[in-house]
Model the fold of this input.
Amino acid sequence: MRTSRGWWALSGLVAGAVGLALSYATAALLHVRESPVVAVAEGITALTPGPVVKWAINTFDKDDKKVLVLGIVIFLLVAFALLGRLARRRWWLAVVGYVLLAAVATVAVATKPTPSPIDFVPVAVGLLAWVVALAVLAEWLRRWELVEETEDPAAEPTHTRRHFFVAAGATAAFAATAGLLGRIAGNARRRAEESRRLLRIEGVTAPDVPDGVSFELEQVAEWETPSADFYLIDTAFIKPTIAPADWTLRIHGMVEKEITLSYSDLVSREITQDWITLNCVSNPVGGALVGNAWWSGVRLATILEEAGPLPGADAVLQTSEDGWTCGTPLAPLLDERNAMLAVAMNGEPLPIEHGFPVRSIVPGLYGYVSATKWVVDMEVTRFDDITAYWTDKGWSELGPVKIASRIDLPKDGDDVPVGELTVAGVAWLQHTGIEAVEVQVDGGRWQEAELATTPNVDTWVQWRAVVDVDEGEHQVRVRATDRRGEVQTGAVADVLPDGATGWHTIDLTAKA
Ligand SMILES: Nc1nc2c(c(=O)[nH]1)N[C@H]1C(S)=C(S)[C@@H](COP(=O)(O)O)O[C@H]1N2
Ligand SMILES: [Mo]
Done:
């Protein structure tokens, strides 16, 4: 055998580099906060005794993290080379080695404060890339060995050798490209994040929580949904990262005058602010795809009137930077409600995943027909002439919200003490408002709940009631009545095509 151990080590190194680079690029593209290596570095820091960390900080100053990451990368490169050598005789051992390294990264990711499934994708991609790359390189090395061993003068070792070098070179180039791609994606994200952090928008103020909106019950959804807890729905696998300086909105189609707004054009206009509850058409009865925030932005009516919609137009086709579309009825964008191009959420510039730098918000419409994140284009048009992302998939063209009420306290399946029991939750019908909420135990009489206050008709309202339960199993349900006097229907409908209906019902057991 004349293929030296060195070539196997090189294969291991190159394969490892591909895995590292791909996991790094995947993390950057998916906006996973840390690449697996950084997650491991943080894990190591957390496990390191305080005095050692102190020593490291003293010795390396602000570079302590960089030094640690560099150390891990060097360790990995050595490990990769050794694993490559191992693979020569014991292929399975090399794979076990890779799996072990991936397992360490998985544990590091899993022990972060709030791991989500997507955080694990970079590790999986990296592991897969390692195994595939090593398999390919090993295949060429084996052929090379085979040719050398035959000692057949006709067999030309340089061919297979060349194949191996080409494969190794291509793999290395691929790793470099992936690394570069990750760097570019990471930089775009950093640029958007940095500009977001430095942004001060005149007229945007901190949330102004009105008196009496909350009963301050721990299990009931907070009046203001913190932005970090606000539900997230979008089709963007890779979230757009748009710096305000790069953002424009084009308003065109059936208008007297086409306009294009820059970010500074937009925020130089009067800022409107309001509490508005946003919910998803896919929210099942009792579900959590709903949130209430303090939104700041510019009234869409003002902007659209500048463009001057032409007679006959009844829709606005909104498009986001990532190409998602929705058809919004024109009327609610022009009437007295606070439909807006929002630039801030809960007093801060929009989080990137909630549409930074600009999204639309329309009180009274489901998100899928109105709340375009990263909005860059609005075409004033006719419903007859357009289709949009979700309507193409069978969802209703119009998406006015449906009345809903939810029990947050107690939770379904809870054990509760017998006797008086506080039942509480939220109810909403944006832009109409909730007049009353009633609860019912075991199909008995509907009992009126107490409502908290609301600053407008565009938000959810908290409700609470005290019911009496004796020992045993019970069923509690809720229904709301809107300000037009219409009672929420108990007829069960699925979320498709235009939103769920039915009464939220929970089971509980009262114990002495
Ligand atoms: N660009 C873009 N905007 C979008 C979507 C999307 O997929 N892409 N989803 C919509 C849907 S279905 C909902 S319910 C809301 C959710 O907004 P949030 O993620 O900020 O809660 O955004 C809407 N805006
Ligand atoms: Mo949605």
In short: Residues 320 and 375 are 4 Å apart (CA to CA). The first strand starts at residue 248 and ends at 253. DSSP finds ten helices and 19 strands in the chain.
